[in-house]
Design brief:
Keywords: Membrane, Transmembrane, Transmembrane helix
Radius of gyration: 26 Å
Helix content: over 70%
Largest sheet: none
Order of helices and strands: HH
Transmembrane segments: 29-53
Strand content: under 5%
Structural class: mainly alpha
Length: 59
Amino acid sequence: MAEESDNAEPLRHEDARVEEIVSKGPMGAFAVAGVATFIVVAIYFAFYLVVYLPRGAVQ
């Protein structure tokens, strides 16, 4: 039985650490999504400025 309590203490510490990390939320996922969205919008504007504006009005 003494071995179980020796092994349980590091697991409790690890569980507390995981809970602390999870409680902060998915900030990294939001950061990646924000960067990806910025890149898509930047490519859209670059395409618009480089392709559509130089052509002028289509008649």
